[in-house]
Write a structure and sequence with these properties.
With about 450 residues, the protein is α+β, with helices and mostly antiparallel strands. It has 2 domains: about 220 residues, PmbA/TldD superfamily (PmbA/TldD fold, 2-Layer Sandwich), CATH 3.30.2290.10; about 220 residues, no CATH class. It contains 10 helices and 24 strands. The strands form 4 sheets. Strands 8, 9, 12, 13, 16, 17, 18, 19, 20, 21, 22, 23 and 24 form a 13-stranded mixed β-sheet that branches. Strand 10 and strand 11 form a beta hairpin. The radius of gyration is 24 Å and the shape is globular.
Length: about 450
């Protein structure tokens, strides 16, 4: 992939906007090539390859924006005219603007030519190999589906304020879902996967993901009724993301701060978690995987500390929220060419601790291990409740799988009651790097 086409498309859009007298314009273009294979019920049932060009045009008229997306280079001028027409009838907002250009770091590409040449045939072989690895582990493992996909993209942005930037990305990912079945007993549904932009590295990560899937699925066999108590839970990285991370990131967003929805409003510099908790957006590099140097608005993506040693240090902003708050964008205007920029968290890294997850489990005493959580967490109040999938009790010297068990509590109380985080962390599909978390004070209710 190269950026010549998308850069030219963006330049054409900016020139077209000037020609029709638009006050401002931003053109964001993505040329993407994808390949995917899927196995279901042990047979290859999908193999596809697609290429697409998507162009998003955002035009400013007075204090109003209009947005149009098209999928052909020859329609960019038309998109500019349509977006201008939309802007002229859209409701105004004094904070609407197009950001100015900023200095961008040199892109840290981790480009792997082998990934670009990794076609449908090798991808099908890889998917089959992953399935064989699971089957060889234990005959009781049943695979509902395995998918392997590869993507390359060239991305560019240009605006009337002088922003001009581009980069290329590549990615290979895989995903498995299924369960363990032993006679008439069907274990809890499970899934796992991995993503990366180095062919050799992601192969190894996918094999580890298949092993994790097998382990979690087998854990769920032989489940019995659990116990009711208030005490410790040991959250796996997946559960950390589901229970702690997702609502916390919502509370750290500038839009929720402004609207009075975040309980973290006004708490900058205050303790919001145990001292073993540190959370940051690593910017352009997560666990060896290179990320874009700029966001959907052409603003720099840099590391951002959110929580350090339990102390709240930062929030994230896009250009709109930054102007309203009187500060600078943190590079969190995100999204693709099919829509205008939206405020979204970026990559997330939670610092690890001093002990391995196995050591945390060994010293947890009576605790419920939570591999997966299905429920709700209210960002504004922190209240959560839901069902633990594939959980098991520890503390008696053995892992005892339990039937679906309810847990409930308050997110913000749990953050303060975290006793330890593991030294080993899991890369969650290239978007988060998370440890296991041991926390106290959670209500566990047997079904």
């Amino acid at each position: 992939m190269n950026t010549d086409l998308v850069r030219e498309v963006c330049a054409t859009g900016v020139a077209a906007a000037r020609a029709v007298g638009a006050e401002g314009v931003e053109v964001f273009a993505v040329a993407r090539r994808t390949r995917e294979v899927a196995f279901e019920k042990n047979d290859l049932n999908l193999a596809r390859a697609d290429e697409e060009l998507t162009v998003g045009v955002r035009v400013l008229s007075g204090q109003s924006f209009g947005f149009v997306t098209v999928n052909a280079p020859g329609r960019v001028e038309e998109a500019v005219r349509q977006a201008l027409a939309v802007a002229k009838i859209a409701p105004p907002d004094a904070h609407h603007h197009l950001p100015e250009p900023v200095a961008l770091a040199r892109p840290r590409y981790d480009w792997d030519p082998g990934l670009s040449e990794f076609g449908l045939g090798p991808m099908a072989e890889l998917a089959s190999h992953l399935a064989d690895r699971i089957k060889a582990r234990d005959a009781r493992l049943s695979i509902d589906g395995i998918r392997v996909s590869a993507e390359e993209a060239a991305v560019a942005i240009a605006s009337s304020t002088g922003i001009e930037a581009s980069h290329v990305t590549s990615d290979l990912s895989g995903f498995v879902m299924g369960m363990a079945i032993d006679g008439s007993e069907v274990g809890s549904f499970n899934y796992d996967g991995a993503s990366g932009n180095r062919l050799a590295t992601v192969r190894a990560e996918l094999l580890s993901a298949m092993d994790r899937f097998a382990e979690k699925a087998l854990w769920a066999l032989g489940a019995r009724k659990g116990e009711t108590f208030k005490g410790r839970v040991l959250l796996t990285p997946d559960a950390v993301g589901e229970i702690l991370l997702e609502p916390l990131l919502g509370a750290l967003g500038a839009d929720n701060l402004r609207k009075g929805r975040s309980p973290l409003q006004g708490r900058l510099g205050a303790r919001v978690a145990a001292s073993c908790v540190s959370l940051r957006d690593p910017g352009r590099l997560l666990d060896g995987m290179a990320i874009a140097p700029f966001d959907r608005e052409g603003q720099a993506i840099e590391p951002l500390s959110l929580v350090r040693d339990g102390i709240l240090e930062g929030f994230f902003y896009d250009a709109y929220e930054a102007r309203r708050a009187g500060c600078g964008s943190t590079g969190h205007g995100r999204g693709g060419a099919k829509g205008p920029p939206v405020l979204m968290p970026g990559l997330i890294e939670m610092a690890g601790g001093d002990e391995a997850a196995a050591a945390l489990e060994a010293r947890a005493g009576r605790a419920l291990v939570v591999p997966r959580f299905a429920g709700r967490v209210e960002m504004a109040t922190g209240e959560f409740s839901g069902v633990v999938k594939g959980g098991f009790l520890v503390g008696s010297g053995d892992r005892v799988p339990v039937e679906e068990t309810m847990i409930s509590g308050n997110l913000y109380d749990v953050l303060q009651a975290i006793e330890a985080v593991s030294s080993d962390r899991q890369n969650i599909f290239g978007s988060a790097l998370l440890p296991w978390v041991l926390a106290d004070g959670v209500q566990v209710t047997a079904g």
